[in-house]
Amino acid sequence: MCNYFKIDNETWRFEDGFVRFFLLKGTECAVMIDSGMTKNNARALCESMTELPITLINTHGDTDHVSGTGAFDEIHIGMDDFNNCRLAERFPDTRPLPLSDGQVIDLGGRRLKAIYIPGHTKGSFAFLDMDRRRLFAGDTVQDDDIFLFGSHRDKDKLADSLKKLIEMQSEYDEIIASHGEVILPADYPKKVLHSWQKVMDGEIDGIDMEMHGNPVQLYKTESCGFIL
C-alpha cells in the first residue's frame, strides 16, 4: 500500500513504508523525486495523476529510493551514486544523466536547482524548488537516523554539505524530508550540524547494534540520529 498526500495543488508526497518520494508538476512537464522502496509501479502511480511527461530525478542511490527506476529510460542522478550503488546492475536499461551542482531543471513555471551535498552518500543531491521556496533534502536533513556506514558514504564531507545548505537558508522557507517528519523548519540543517559536531567531538555515546548484517553504532541526539 502506498498512500499519497497533497503538499499543494501541484506537489504530492507518496509514503512507502518509512520512506517517501514526490511528484512535482510544472506547466510543461513533471518530475518524480526518487521512486520509493517497494514501488516498481511508482511511475504508473504518478502517471495516473498527470498527463504531463514525467522525468525521474534522484536525491541519491540507496535501495529505498530507487525501486521504480526500471520503468524509466533515463534517470537524473549523481554519477558517484549511480556507480557506487550499482544501479547499472539493477537497472541495465536505464541510462544515467549526470547531475551537476547548480543545474536547473525547468518544469515550466517551476524551477528545480540541484545542490550537491555529499555525506550521506558520495553522490547525494538536494533539490531547491526555487519558485515555491522549498528544499527537498533527501536523507541529509531529517529528524530520523542518518546512515553513514558503508563504502558509498562520505561522512567526512557531511559537515561542509550542511554548512552549504545553511548558507542558502535565505532561498527556502521549509525543508521536505524523505524520512521522519515531513516538513522541517528552514533552520534544521543548523540543528543537524550541531548534533553531528557533538558526535565528532565525542560528546555522544554510541549504542552498539547490527544493521543489514553490519556491526554499527547509533548516536542519538535531540535533533536526529547517526548510524556509523
Topology of this structure?
Layout: E1 3-8, E2 11-16, E3 19-25, E4 30-33, H1 42-47, E5 54-57, E6 74-77, H2 79-84, H3 87-90, E7 95-98, E8 104-106, E9 111-116, E10 125-129, E11 134-136, E12 145-147, H4 158-167, E13 174-176, E14 183-185, H5 188-200, E15 207-211, E16 214-220, E17 225-227
Parallel strand pairs: 4-5, 6-7, 11-13, 12-17
Antiparallel strand pairs: 1-2, 2-3, 3-4, 8-9, 9-10, 10-11, 13-14, 15-16, 16-17
Structure description:
Helix 4 packs antiparallel against helix 5. The model has no long low-confidence stretch (mean pLDDT 97). The chain has five helices and 17 strands. The chain is of the alpha+beta class and 228 residues long. Strands 8-9-10-11-13-14 form a six-stranded mixed sheet, with no helix packed on it. The protein has a five-stranded mixed sheet with strand order 1-2-3-4-5. It starts with a strand and ends with a strand. It has helices at residues 42-47, 79-84, 87-90, 158-167, 188-200, and strands spanning 3-8, 11-16, 19-25, 30-33, 54-57, 74-77, 95-98, 104-106, 111-116, 125-129, 134-136, 145-147, 174-176, 183-185, 207-211, 214-220, 225-227. A hairpin with a 2-residue loop joins strand 2 (11-16) and strand 3 (19-25).
